[in-house]
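Hi,

I'm pasting everything inline rather than attaching a file, because the server keeps stripping attachments. The sequence lines come first, and each chain or strand is labelled.
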Amino acid sequence: GQQVMQIPQYQHVQEGEDFTTYCNSSTTLSNIQWYKQRPGGHPVFLIQLVKSGEVKKQKRLTFQFGEAKKNSSLHITATQTTDVGTYFCAGRKVDNRKLIWGLGTSLAVNP
Amino acid sequence: DAGVIQSPRHEVTEMGQEVTLRCKPISGHNSLFWYRQTMMRGLELLIYFNNNVPIDDSGMPEDRFSAKMPNASFSTLKIQPSEPRDSAVYFCASSTHQGLSGYTFGSGTRLTVV
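And the predicted assembly:
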């Protein structure tokens, strides 16, 4: 069954509002990756987090990895229409090389 | 760099026909992955290769699916015979560091089996 849960499944915001998606694992992860997939497109790698409590920023995007390395979040400040798409987290278990993918959060932005 | 190249982009075939999807990974990437994406099940890993060797094919749905990587620059995913439930988008991705870094995905093949 699904071992990496992502919430919410969908989010609809007004342009300029903030957005956050959360990723939770039932087991400790060695690292976690985030991807963005535009409608009709393919997943594009955004970032990888490895250290406990790690925080990384990419312009308006802030990524966090929990202290227990079981959860992660992606926060977008002041959303723009170019942020539209589905955001996936993918975690790698400590004892496994395979990535476990969340089902994604689909973001819609009203201009 | 041209990125990961997949062909065809779209494939419509009749049930029972053989389907072959193709992938050219990024030069220098030593890991290659085949994924299937559907609305219901999301992204599912079918099989992955390290240095052209299949490492884990536990995600391959059944014997109708097979994958090969005869050299570092080419891989195929074959479905024979195809069934309507195989309809999905199939992505190929490649990576360095035995897949421990980020993946670069191809544009995918949208397969429709009627």
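The mean pLDDT of chain B is 94.

If the labels don't parse on your end, tell me and I'll reformat.
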